[in-house]
Design goal:
The complex is a heterodimer of chains A (126) and B (148). Chain A contains 1 helix and 9 strands. Chain A is mainly beta and 126 residues long. In chain A, strand 4 and strand 5 form a beta hairpin. The longest helix of chain A has 12 residues. With 148 residues, chain B is an alpha+beta fold. In chain B, the strands form 2 sheets. A 4-stranded antiparallel β-sheet of chain B has the order 1-2-8-7, with no helix packed on it. Chain B has a 3-stranded antiparallel β-sheet with strand order 3-4-6, with no helix packed on it. In chain B, a hairpin with a 3-residue loop joins strand 1 and strand 2. Chain B is flat. The relative contact order of chain B is 0.17. The chains are: A mainly beta (126), B alpha+beta (148).
Chain lengths: 126, 148
């Protein structure tokens, strides 16, 4: 009979799957001009505090988690809790200290200024 | 036969795992479509969720990069239409290196399972998510019946 208790016990703890958050790559636009690189990423529903932007050794990684608090019965659900994640290579010429980010209407706007030393320069011939 | 209990136990465990995976299959599939490059069909429209709270419906839609002036919501009886445009927001003087966020015009219609009170509908836009709260019309609300 002791074996039987083991059986019921196992079933109670069961293989419950952890609450998985899906990781997706956000859609991005990248623009460039002489002074900076501009990156726009769609992150609807992500709060400012849940976004992290890291630049390390030429790798820029964006990550943002969206939490959804839902009430009631879902008739359909096409989007859920999600982790937006994407990594880019950035040129070493980016001035890491001057990078700034803004979040508006669910779009992350990242300004990556180029360092003075790397800017194209016209050389005058004397 | 009793010595075999642990084997059966393990077998049940595996079946349970399989069953719960299968239960998740369709939600996972629904969610994964439209995300990421390669699956373009769902991208011309914003993704939406519909929740039924008994007295109200709640619709949420992903509308990143759209201001409230860009979105229009129309309600008639139990049909709802959300339309909007996202302008291309390429800033002046920049050259595009990569363009994944397309400018789009969309219109999406829904038929709700009951009529809503169009006067009391509330809409808000926060962080690129449109939230519509649609109170059901009096006739469609669930009623508590007291027993005499």
């Amino acid at each position: 009979m002791s074996e039987r208790t083991e059986l019921t016990k196992r079933e109670a703890t069961g293989p419950t799957l952890p609450h998985l958050v899906q990781a997706v790559a956000p859609a991005v636009d990248i623009f460039e001009n002489e002074d900076e690189i501009l990156l726009h990423a769609d992150m609807p529903g992500v709060l400012k505090d849940d976004i992290s932007v890291d630049i390390d050794n030429g790798r820029l990684s964006l990550s943002g988690t969206r939490r959804l608090e839902t009430t009631g019965a879902a008739n359909w659900e096409e989007f859920g809790e999600v982790e937006y994640q994407r990594t880019f290579s950035v040129p070493q010429t980016i001035d890491v200290n001057k990078v700034n980010a803004k979040l508006k209407d669910g779009v992350l706007k990242l300004h990556l200024p180029k360092s003075e030393a790397s800017k194209a320069r016209q050389i005058d011939i004397q | 036969m009793l010595t075999r209990w642990s084997d059966r136990d393990r077998m049940f465990g595996t079946t349970d795992l399989l069953r719960s995976r299968l239960n998740r299959l369709f939600t996972d599939f629904d969610r994964s479509c439209g995300y990421g490059p390669g699956w373009k069909t769902a991208e011309s429209m914003p993704k939406t969720n519909l929740y039924d709270n008994g007295d109200t419906f709640e619709i949420r839609a992903e509308v990143p990069g759209m201001a409230k002036e860009d979105i229009h919501v129309k309600i008639q009886g139990n049909s709802l239409e959300i339309s909007g445009t996202r302008k291309s927001n390429a800033p002046e003087g920049y050259s595009g290196q990569r363009k994944e966020r397309v400018a789009l015009t969309f219109s999406r219609s829904f038929t709700l399972s009951s009529e809503v009170d169009a006067e009391k509908v509330e809409a808000s836009l926060e962080n690129g998510i449109l939230v519509l709260t649609l109170p059901k019309s009096e006739a469609a609300k669930p009623k508590q019946i007291t027993i005499h």
